[in-house]
């Protein structure tokens, strides 16, 4: 890791708000430094940074920002790499993968998963790597396997290979249904809820087999858009 990220970190620190940072620390309940920036502030900065940086530079800076363990720096790191078209993207994928074991809350994990989603859609063979997350001891890593694969809930007319991916992920979800941890149950419900907008019958079929293992709130969430 080089020191090039320090210039970008200084820009984040220049917008720090101590009062808001204290509120964020209380809300997120994860011990790390918070600067008190809003999401739009981080969005605006990273949008400008991306315009001036090559992919390799973005990877380098994102790596440095993530390693600081400052909330807004990690948030900015994810946004630097959230883009559908990146070529080549192997270095981006490798860096995103390296962050997954660090996930310790939903907030940063979800932003990182947004970036991961785009790399998976670009190359679905990467689901092989994601499958290894499903047996991790880290709850947030396991959860990420479903959050990162949400694009496979959204096809109205999926191709055969997309259906195969969908069924593969639903097998993971079936295993997760028996895990009673709230955030894992929530991730299953989220996946099914989004799928129900595009393939209601498949959700009904899943629940017929696995619904008894889900907590009540998860079943209700999964059925939110179904009659």
Automatic annotation (TrEMBL):
CDD domains (UniProt xref): AlkD_like (cd06561)
Superkingdom of origin organism: Bacteria
SUPFAM superfamilies tied to this protein: ARM repeat (SSF48371)
InterPro entries tied to this protein: ARM-type_fold, DNA_alkylation
Pfam families: DNA_alkylation
Record-given protein name: DNA alkylation repair protein
Source organism: Parasedimentitalea denitrificans
